[in-house]
Amino acid sequence: MSLRRHGWLLAALLAPLAGCATDPRITPDARWIDPSQAVQLASAAAPRGVSGVFAMTVQDADRPGPLYLNSERDYRDPRCLTVVVLPQAASALAARLHGEPERVLRGRRILVAGSARRVRIDFVVDGRRSGKYYYQTHVVVTDVAQIQPL
Fold first, then answer.
1. Integer angstrom CA distances of residue 116 from 24, 43, 51, 79
2. Could you list the residue range(s) of the whole structural domain that residue 90 is in?
3. How do residues 63-79 score in pLDDT, each as one tens digit?
């Protein structure tokens, strides 16, 4: 499949994102991007991100510092979209949900406004980078208004 012959396909995939360049918002008419599309679009746009409203079901959640909400049970799965909720936004989210987000949101569908970016994750052995790495796709949430449980 040549890019020249199928450039229209890429244009059609990216067209819904044209209006979401820097400040996507969750609105009733927002076009949602699913995790697999987010991963593909972020990879194609790297190192830039792809802005939009992302829809996913939280399959796994963890809070080793920031709150991580994952679209797959295994966060290392290349298809996984990870929503990284920074601590201040996570606290506000907990207050809004009346409970710990990692417990309340597991298994629930959410909408997240932001930018999906491909992030390099280095494997570390004995405190040193091993030279091996993989990529994750992250949407960083700095404001509780960026996330909406459905």
1. 11, 9, 6, 13
2. 3-149
3. 988 999 999 999 999 99
